[in-house]
Amino acid sequence: MDQSEEVWLSLKPREPLSSQCCGSGCKPCIYDIYQEDLKKWEEAKAKEDISLLSRKKQQSSNSDLTPEIFTAFIISSVTQLTEDTYQYTFKLPGNSSLGLSLGQHIVLRGVVNGLEVQRAYTPITPVNAEGFFEVLIKCYKTGLIHHFWRGPFGGFPYTANQVISITDSKQPLTLIHF
Predict the structure, then answer these.
(1) Which of 45-59, 98-112, 133-147 has the highest mean pLDDT?
(2) Known binding site for FAD: residues?
(3) CA-CA distance, 81 to 68, in Å (whole number)?
(4) Per-residue pLDDT tens over the stretch 143-165
């Protein structure tokens, strides 16, 4: 194998582990991102142009949070609400906000017994909150909390004054937003 081939192989995206998927039906899912990155890598390799691998940062807000990359945020406070449930407050840079829509969530990454584990959480912070975000987390004796986040995810954004009908074979459901 020549040096050029080694360089290309080192740049090839790695398929995510099953433990890296939160199982919440995220849009985009970590597997979707992997497929996009793999396609981009294959096209760049075919054209022998490494510059095609650069990815524009997709941001939904003015924070550093993206669906593709985990970002560390500092825990500014922890408030115990019940015996095993805590409200964690994380700092955001400057006066930035997450900018999540209703129905969206973010993913927390941690390591438990050497295995990377990811969990989805919906922030409880008001949409217009600046400089911080909060999540409620139930802590287990065998669990681990960390501070690396990515997102937002969720394919059911809220739009005021919109009517959506969801029908399955058993019973129709109509959601009316005001």
Answers:
(1) 98-112
(2) 119, 121, 136, 138, 145
(3) 32
(4) 555 556 666 666 655 666 665 55
